[in-house]
Amino acid sequence: MNTRAARAVAPASVAGLVRAFANATPFPDGPRLLADVGATNARFALETAPGHFEAIEVLRCDDYAGIVDVIRSYLERVRLPRVSHAGIAIANPIGGDLVRMTNRDWTFSIEEVRQRLDLSTLLVVNDFTALAMALRHLSSDQRMQVGGGTPQLNSVIGLLGPGTGLGVSALIPTEDRWVTLGSEGGHTSFAPNDERELDVLRYCWRQYPHVSGERLISGPGIELTYRALCERDGVPALPRKARDVVEAALAGTDPVCVETLDCFCGMLGTVASNLAVTLGALGGIYIGGGIVPRLGARFEHSPFRARFEAKGRFSDYLADVPTYVITAPYPAFHGVSAILADHLRGRTTGDGSLLDKIRSAAVSLSKAEQRVSQLVLARPRTVLNDPIIEIARQAEVSQPTVIRFCRSLGFQGLSDFKLKLASGLTGTVPVRHSQVRHGDSAPDVSAKVMENTASAILKLRDVINVSAIEEATRILGRARRIEFYAIGNAAVVALDAQFKFFRFRIPCVAYSDTHMQIQSAELLGPGDVVVVVSTSGRPSDLLRAVDAALAAGAEVVAITASKSPLSRKATVSIGLDHVEDGQTFISMVVRVLQLVVVDVLAVGVALQRGADNPLGALSDITQHDDERPFENENPRSRISHVSG
Question: Which domains does the chain have, with CATH numbers?
Answer without folding.
Answer: 15-137 (3.30.420.40), 140-327 (3.40.367.20), 353-435 (1.10.10.10), 464-643 (3.40.50.10490)
